[in-house]
Write a structure and sequence with these properties.
48% of the residues lie in helices and 25% in strands. The protein is an alpha+beta fold and 138 residues long. It has 2 domains: 3-69; 75-135, SH3 type barrels. A hairpin with a 6-residue loop joins strand 3 and strand 4. Helix 1 (3-30) runs antiparallel to helix 2. The radius of gyration is 22 Å and the shape is elongated. The two termini are 41 Å apart.
Length: 138
């Protein structure tokens, strides 16, 4: 992990901790719960920022691990899944999974059709961010 990323993470954790301590100290000293609600938006903002930084750090770690091990997702590895219904887990922002039919795999890109007939959507995925692919039975 880069030094700047570590500093940002530690700063966010420190700021969140100080905010929580200040809110709890204010609650204990005054006994007034109305001021405690003032700190809630601050907690939410720091929590959202922390999650965003954490997910980008996870993606960076995955990419670095693949570079070190020499793992390069290629079309040959994805060709057995073309034309089949699969579940793909992605490590992009937020990390998500989707189920659909793999249409094609070319270079670093994978085309996937999702949805019911008549309401299908085409998704183009970068294979660098694919963590797992499973064939699904109907």
């Amino acid at each position: 992990m880069r030094l700047s990323t570590k500093l940002v993470l530690w700063f966010l954790v420190f700021a969140l901790g100080v905010g929580v301590l200040a809110a709890v100290a204010n609650l204990i000293s005054t006994g007034d719960t109305s001021n405690f609600a003032v700190y809630n938006p601050i907690f939410i903002v720091f929590f959202v920022i922390f999650l965003g930084v954490y997910s980008s750090v996870q993606v960076f770690r995955l990419q670095r691990r693949r570079r070190r091990r020499g793992i390069k997702p290629s079309c040959e590895a994805l060709q057995p899944f073309v034309g089949k219904r699969c579940k793909i887990t992605n490590s992009g922002a937020g990390g998500f999974s989707m189920t659909g039919v793999v249409e094609s795999a070319q270079g670093k890109w994978l085309a996937m059709q999702t949805g019911k007939p008549g309401k299908q959507k085409l998704h183009i995925l970068n294979t660098d961010y694919i963590m797992r692919i499973q064939e699904k039975t109907k």
